[in-house]
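the two lines:
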Amino acid sequence: MTIKLQQTSVSRRNVLKGVAGAAGLVVAWSSISILDAAPATAQQGASQFPRRQAPTDVDSYLAVNSDGTISLATGKVEFGQGIQTGFMQLVAEELNVPFESIKAVMGKTDRVPYDGATVGSGSTRRTGITIRKAAAEMRQWLLEIGAEALEATVDQVVADGGAITVSSDPTKTITYANLATAKRAVRSISDGTVLKDPAEYTIVGQSIPRVDVPAKVNGEIKYGYDAVVDGYVHGKIVRPPALGAKLLDIDFSAAEAMPGVVGTFRDGDFAGLAAKRRDQAESALAAVKATWSEVATGNTSENIHDLIVSTADAGEVQEEEPGDPDSILAAATTKFEATFLAPYVSHSPIEPKAALVEITPDQVNVWTSTQTPFGVQQSVAGALGVPLEKVVVDPLMSGGAFGSKAAVVAEVEAARLAAGIGHPVRIQWSRQEEFQFGQFRPASKGTITASLDANGNLAAWKYDLYSAGYFPEGAEAPSPCAGNAGMSITDIYAIEQTKSTWYQGHSPLPPYFWRGNGTAYTNLAIESSLDELAEMAGKDPVSFRRPLLAQNPRMEAVMDAVVELSGWTPGVGSTGAGMGLALGFADGTWVGEVAKVAVDETSGQITVTDFWVVVDCGLVINPEAVRHQVEGSVVLSLSPTLKEAITFDNGKITNASWGMYHPITIADVPTIKVGFVEDKTQPMQGIGEPAVAPVPGAVANAIYDAVGVRLRELPFTSSQVLAALAAKE
Amino acid sequence: MATTTIKVNGRDYTVDVEGTVPLQYVLRDDLGLTGTKFGCGVSECGACTVHLDGQPVRSCITPISSVGDKEVTTIEGLAVDGKLHPVQEAWIEAQVPQCGYCQSGQIMEAVAFLQKNPNPSDAEIREAMAGHLCRCGTYTRILSAIQLAATKA
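prediction for all of em together
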């Protein structure tokens, strides 16, 4: 039971320094606030907490209920990618119970086992394996205790229909509920856990309709942006006009006098206010007088690539044992070289960041849209200086994330403001804040240098990639953002003399994980270059790649499958329509994509009419859900391919609205067909991101097939097409 | 602040707010009808779409003072006596939503569109729905669902 701390209208400053007895503050009950009782200070931050690991015992994940249902608890979160339904299918399959009998709880930190963030296309291929094994161990446990209860041996009984039954005498039967309600299995998963044979599957492999869909067509499902609690107020943070500006001076007096305002707060560069209504908070925010330092770095989107290269670190060779392509290239008579550019790209989830934080004497409650409920718990606990377990996070449905909600931002803002003003605070970012204060897929510049041998085979390959890295003050290494993802050609192709070096330059905008990370621009560089080398060798794109896939039968099978699915018929030149191929590998999954485009040589307009994708992601739990993820990946990835680029000037985003940034709309989507290559004995692999990578490469190769020009600068615009066509003549 | 009475999903609600407050804020925060979403606040994404007398409008740029006697219908008001609207049923059959955040606006637009154009071509659907952003990329399924709903009407 939580005890509410009664407040007066006096804003509670310096809560963390323990001034609960300040004049005017009335404590309704004798217990002091959780904030005042905590030993840690906010300065220690989230790093004071020990590293946690997902448990491996069955009872952390599964329980049998008295009504015959099975409870499943997991620290991963569903945000439309289908893992809730997929995990339910895995459990139902291993336990031989109906799909409908599984009740899943996800992400609520006081009710589920710890797990890492829902990122990296890792839910099914990591936690999914744990859950599948846990269910298999539970089945084995039920067989054992069921056999005992039925006075039989384990091999004399079967687990089916939610009961253990003696095979030779079906009258001897006992339900899971009667056997195991309120009992603990006390066993863990292991490498030796025996899983059900896929040949016997009746639930895994079925396109069961996703359980989260019905509440998404009638307005019922709640997102972080919708969260409410008694007495909550609307918070707004005072923002600088540009990134990097420091708060010099702030005058809240006009804002404080405005209708509905309940409090203001400042701590260093962090300043905010709250009001009873959102419109009142917005009006009050406009009345705040803040003075910020000037940002005059001279960094703009025009010079970003020069900046990244000129401030680059010493570079990190990606191959464990790099070859010596330099020697071969030096001796080669014909060399190939191409440079590829990519700008920063915004996540632009339709739901901006939001969080509601309520501080009670016992605990801190957080409702939010997040990919990382336990990360939120840690960051909020660190920011407030309270014990970890006193922060309870309830992740509501997330309105789009793509990496942006793996960062913990609005939650800490809401927590600090709630602590500062003494009311539960809901922070709701605006779209402009999402653009200006969000994080971005890093800008990059990469150069491929390569040569062929006398037989027209790939002999040497160098890839020097420079991407924008964020170096926080005092940090030795840049913050991780996987800007190099997918850059190693040897992930897919067998070639010895390769050297791939990743340099990170200083980024004026904060780069972060963005669905697929660097794979879209690295795949473009690799797959476009392979097509160009194929032409130099006098071979078609498929024949050129085949010998390079001699050691990669899975990729070769996917390539052949997408060639067949698409009816691969490259036009080789000037019909204005063309097809292009690109292959990719990420998160354990092999992907082949073919794009068909039409290019208007007068206007330069690029129209993507068709996309075909084949994936090999190992065992498929729910084919329709996988198709959906692939379609979504293609549509999302087409947007930076054709339309998106952040423009900025001295820390200010200059196209900070969808009117200026224009993501892809339904008017531009191609027909998308998805096929599978599936071996059910192969482990389940990721599908949230792998289909993102080959999109720009397939489009670039299709544009070349259509009108004979190679585009190497994202986004591919009509002016780039026209310039390239003019240069060709 | 001024007292205003508006009719939403067949019910009268009286609120005491400034006339300039967007209908979206009143629906979401005063009436608790959170099915209508905030995406941008400036009519660039469609997530806030509701009906005024059956016509689709962007509630983010509709001041409460302009509603008057018009009937407001939100996503919560589409189903009648617990029975889903055919467009909602098509949306489930085609498994359209991923995160779902943009879907209320998409559905409200689609319902109004099909009332005007019950037998649309692919090109007409694309043009009608082009103002509704979806970052999860459900566009191809929105096309299928609208075609499906059209055939079932």
